[in-house]
Amino acid sequence: YPAINKPAAVLHWLNHVNVDAEYIVILDADMIMRGPITPWEFKASRGHPVSTPYDYLIGCDNELAKLHTSHPEACDKVGGVIIMHIDDLRKFAMLWLHKTEEVRADRAHYARNITGDIYESGWISEMYGYSFGAAELKLKHTINSEILIYPGYVPALNVKYRVFHYGLRFSVGNWSFDKADWREVDMVNRCWSKFPDPPDSSTLDQANQENLRRDMLSIECAKTLNQALELHHKKKCPSADSILISKGDENTEERGTSKEIGNTDASIDSITNHVATNNSGELASVQKEELSSVQKEELASVQKDEIPKSLRFWVVFLWAFSGFGFLVVIFLVYSGHSKRRTRMKHPSRRRRSFQSGFMESNGRDRHGRDVDL
Fold first, then answer.
1. CA-to-CA separations, 50 to 54, 164, 234, 285, in angstroms, rounded
2. Which portions of the chain have biased composition (kind: Basic residues) (predicted)?
3. Is 28:167 a contact under the CB 8 Å cutoff?
4. What is the largest CA-CA distance in the chain?
5. Phi/psi zone of residue 160: left (φ > 0), alpha (ψ -120 to 50 degrees), beta?
6. Integer distance in angstroms from the first to the last C-alpha of the chain?
7. Whole-model pTM?
8. Helix, strand, coil content of the chain in percent (nearest 5)
């Protein structure tokens, strides 16, 4: 639900910014300021915020308000531009978000005859969240209809509207604009993109003054949008002059390339004519050269075939030699081990024979001694 970003952003801002302002002005993203908004000019005060009328919020007058606020009589049908004291906003911000989530979850009351939502999709839940949250705190709004105007609406005489709200389609003659038509177009990141220009004011019908004032405001809104895009693109994109210069360079390169192609065609024609005038002897020599070149290619292919054969021979020879050398090394190592074993066995035999002889002589001595005794 994208519209929840308004109460969520206000709450996040209050929790992360040290605010030293006494009054806060809150607008929608699809609004354009035409002039300053000062709290004292519109008589805002603590406990009495100022806002603009949203008469289609019929839920303030029916069961919807009774379900979502304990003070349905305090529900004001307002929204859009909000001028509120900072103390009221600090108390109100969390309620605004909570009530928005509450109304959004109440799918049983999405019907148009209850909410006034022509889409019956809960799209204006954020607006009801504002009205119901303010009713909980019994904030009494000063409703002012001279702050905001929708392009396409007939303006009142001698009123200096401070805000355009281009939330709906508006038109001037055959030209029209609707922000929903541009939802999938990245106008911000596409360099030098802009909306279709509205008609020039000099082409408007001067007979009907109401329609004239209406169309003049519509043209102003459309031009302001394009001016804002132009200012943005000047900061982010290469200049339009450099783009024109690069295009001119491309055209020059194309002309140079075409000249080169023309020269190439002329040289090809001259070569063709020269070949056509060659005599038969030259053709014969060319044929001989072609034959000799063919023979050279065959010889090269034969040499290529011979080289792998010689390589195979040497590979086999080295493999056989390596195998033979390995066997010789194994034989030498094995024979060395066998000789060592033989040498180690003979001393043990000698020791055993020596010990046995010693024992025999020692036994005879003992026997002789016994006899003597």
1. 13, 17, 37, 103
2. 342-353
3. yes
4. 169
5. beta
6. 126
7. 0.64
8. 60, 10, 30
Q: Which of 36, 49, 43 is nearest to 10 (CA)?
A: 49
Find the mean pLDDT for residues 330-351.
Answer: 60
CA 211 from centroid of its chain's CA atoms: 44
Element counts in the chain: helices (H) and strands (E): 8, 9
Output 242-248 pairs: Cβ under 8 A, ≥24 positions apart: 243/192
Provide the 10 A C-beta neighbour count for residue 106. 17
Main-chain dihedrals φ then ψ at residue 57, nearest 5 degrees: -80, 70
Tens-digit pLDDT profile for residues 175-193: 999 999 999 999 999 999 9
Mapping DSSP to helix (H, G, I), strand (E, B) and coil, where does residue 277 land? coil
Banded pLDDT at 364 (limits 50, 70, 90): very low
**109: which DSSP letter?**
G
Cβ contact 49:85 at 8 Å: yes
How many CB atoms sit inside 10 A of residue 241's CB?
A: 8
Which class is 2-168 in CATH? alpha beta
pLDDT at 226 over 70: yes
In 3D space, the residue among 121, 82, 71, 123 whose CA is nearest the CA of residue 100 turns out to be: 123
Residues 6+ apart with CB under 8 A from 132: 65, 68, 69, 75, 99, 102, 103
Report how far residue 241's alpha carbon sits from residue 371's, in angstroms, rounded to the nearest whole number.
Answer: 138
Q: Where are the domains of the chain?
A: 2-168
CA nearest to 14, candidates 69, 71, 81, 84: 84
Judge whether 79 and 55 are in contact, CB under 8 Å. no
Q: Which two tokens stand for residue 24?
A: 């806060």
